[in-house]
Amino acid sequence: MTISKQDVLHVARLARLEIDEAKVNTFAGQLAKILEHVDMLNQIDTEGVKPTSHAIDLTNAFRDDEPAAHLENEKALANAPAKEDGAFIVPKVVG
Amino acid sequence: MTLHQLTIQQAHAHLTAKEITSVELTQAVLDRISAVDSRIGAYITVNAESALKTAEHADKAIAAGNAGPLTGIPLAVKDLICTRGVRTTCASKILSGFIPPYNAAVIDKLNACQAVIIGKANMDEFAMGSSTENSGLQTTYNPWDTTCIPGGSSGGSAAAVAADMCLASLGSDTGGSIRQPASHCGVVGLKPTYGRVSRFGLVAFASSLDQIGPFTKSVGDCALMMNALCGHDPKDSTSVPRDVPDYTRALKDGLKGMKVGLPREYYATDGLDPSVKTAVETAVKVIESLGAERVDVSLPHTEYAVPVYYVIAPCEASSNLARYDGVKYGFRVKDSDDLMEMYRQTRSVGFGPEVQRRILLGTYALSAGYYDAYYGKASQVRTLIIRDYKKAYDQCDVLLTPVAPTPAFKIGEKTDDPLTMYLSDIYTLSANLAGVPGLSVPCGFSPEGLPIGLQILGPHFEEEKILHVAYNFEQATPFHKQKPAL
Q: H or E segment at B51?
């Protein structure tokens, strides 16, 4: 199992992380080692086995669609690093 | 009487007999924190003023004859459970400055019981780790030997109970994060069935695995905490609408008719420390002597729990942690030219290395071309692990196993090699994958004097059976009475 430097940089971009040059090789080596261990799952025949995403037999938690209290604008914005006029402020989105 | 050493049950008796007040008890615990926490590092935040105020209110309720089992009892809370108006860090720089605008459901429940929340406990960043060394804020030391780790990820919650810096605490368990630190710190820790306790307001790590549960000084206290914490919550769609029993009814003598299963794979693992093996095997004999019948069972997919978990948990984490983007709360880097740069720099500075590693791992496993090979495959093997448990519980009521392969290891011993650290979770991960409840109860000490825990696992929603076995074992053995010398 090898993970290339390009693999790490590609995944980092997808995950919105910026990995500096010095750490790329370390991460690549560690990820390869972990995924190599994960490869032991291929020893098992899982043909026809239903995947589990949730261990308890519970489906569809419905409720009536009724209005209820919600977080007020001011409280929702209280932790924002930047805000103005009741909205979050972000750096420019398109160049 | 040394107030900070009391169990919840003992303190409740003294409070209702008017021999002590909650203010005195809370002050004694705060004094204890001042005396020893500089050497342990269990707390990220201590809120003395609000704790004493709550204690005053509790004293009024007690005087009026309205005391419940937790009224006026000082507790600690793992710092990934939201507390309104009190910073909640997840031990991460990315949440610096974050003050939750609402309480987690379990905090509302504890407040309704008039429990006294003393402060917020240290942990591995976003609960990712087995030693609390991944905290982005501070180191927590094992009260039994401060050169050792307290376990993780709820290391602060476990150490705070072990060092008598609270009477009980809350943790969360995604792959063993309650049971393993409980074992390493010599206290009782229970991960309830998935869906038993509301996770509303618990910062999400891996949503199909996370569960909140208590750390206590005794099994009796664990039952009381469960009574307070459990129940359906419409705000958590994974919480199960099912009646909550009175867990203290499980605290009854005798184990006649109880069948205890020993999964042979757990005792045949490479790397099981002889002192742990001896302590657990001796514990099994004690449980047999109390009337239980021993059954040998098999969980054939045990060795696959580590690879299944370390695919599923990072996949879920990579998705859950997408919300930390420097926009809505917490940390943001300054002076970014555009949004993408701000996202990437904020997350790279704000998240520590283990969190970044798991986000990368999860993103890789979910990315185009790899999904079926990793997430799909792991989810199928997860089904096989669940089937193993179902078959085992056809033959027995509970399973008895080690919690961790070794006693607490040295600080720094495993930090260079993530896979070695992951492999130490071998006995605890599968309970989360299967959603079953599990408890650690003190069952001995290593030659170096470090605590060892016995893991008792039960079927879904059968916490009473676990508590029943744990209670009988505890009453028959002296380990829970021993205290670390601090």
A: helix B48-63
